Amino acid sequence: MVSWTSEERQFTSSFAQPLRANYPIGIMSRRAKVTLAKLCALKRERQKITMLTCYDYSTARVMEDAHIDAILVGDTYAEVCLGHDTTLPASIDHMVTIAAAVRRGAPSAFLVGDMPYLSYQASIERAIDNAGRFMAGAGCDCVKVEVDRRLVDTVAAMSRATIPVMAHLGLRPQSVHQLGGYKAQATTAEAACRLLEDARMMEEAGACSLLLEAVPHTVARMVAEQTELPVIGCVSGPHCDGQVLVMHDILGFGAGHPPRSVKVYTNLNDALRTAFCGYIEDVQSGGFPEEANSITMSERELARLQGMQRERS
Ligand code: KIV
Predict the structure, then answer these.
(1) Which of 8, 40, 108, 306 has a CA 20 to 30 Å removed from the CA of 57?
(2) Any residues with CB less than 8 A from the CB of 76 and at least 6 apart, and which?
(3) Would you call 213 a catalytic residue per the annotation?
């Protein structure tokens, strides 16, 4: 039996309230909610679907403002935010909490909750309960599971239970120990045939979309051409219907060394370091805070206070 935390229930408030404007960014323009139907239409119209990972409310607001189509609350959270070497330590509680925060920041993006290690592999019942926490508790539009044909029954059962499932094929980081490392997948003709079959099986099982990680672009193209489902690529070349990357990798943020196929758009590590050093220097030199940055007391209250102090001494 699943019990909801108050944190999980709070996501609904973002639909009812305007985005907080204390740090306005851009125009914060509203747009229609990005739905699964919209993603399918983008594929049909040969327009690319944009997707990034996100792990917090503030960054989600900026992505919402930039009109990203979809956001993946990825279990790479365990690596880029918690400092682990793999995604395995991401917990369902963590993931649902941050998914709800991202939903509050990005009410109109298509939100994908990444089901963490062992939250769906052990039993169908657990898979459905845990997916329900992302859907009903955090306000996700879909959940993502790392699969091959061994989990086709799980995907079918989740789908029957009305849960939209994105099937993540190819390199599956939660299986890193079985796969023998983070290696490109489907690089032989046999392995590629198997991946194409797996993709078909996932579609037949009711998956709503596919994600391909680290497969050759030629194979990714075949998958995308052979299905009506939106196919999102991660380091799988230009022929997929959309692209996803880990936010930290495109921002030059954190300790990761992005794979060569990732494009880096800024160096956030440098920008943050410059800001932190400026702050440290200002505090140490007395340059901050100045009186202008401080809270002032009225002359009248100050005079009263001084009088009280004199009486005491
Ligand atoms: O968890 C994640 O960030 C992912 C992407 C790398 C696709 O699964």
Answers:
(1) 40
(2) 53, 87, 173, 246
(3) yes
